[in-house]
Amino acid sequence: QAKATVKSFKDVPSSHWAYKPIMNMVNKGIISGTTQPGNGVGTFAPDSPMTRAQFITVVTRYLYPNELKTVKVAEGSAWYAGNYDVAVDMGLIYEHEFSADASVMNQSMTRQEMAMVLVRAMDALGEDTSDKVSKNSHEKS
Asked: What pTM did the predictor assign?
């Protein structure tokens, strides 16, 4: 299915403090908003928390666009299924931490969970993470 092109968000006017970085990420294909755009206008929900599915989608779109193009997803799967599979395949998340079930993936992602995924992403990019937060979901430092 073809994605509709986002030209703007009705809840992020050009005067919004984050307008430029948001639109930069839209132009790079990393984010697309929270609704299917009509006539190029969608919603972004800038003050809403991100779900686990949304966060994983943004990170995988940035890091693994080629893998996302080739991942096979069963028809009728959740909208985030390909991103979830790539995140698991690349070691950003583990199935025992987050199941692919919508009841888990549609929960808000905690800052700790975001940090854990981002540190793993830094590892994947070859960055030194020895002085960063733990890469394990339940390890206390």
From this structure: 0.83
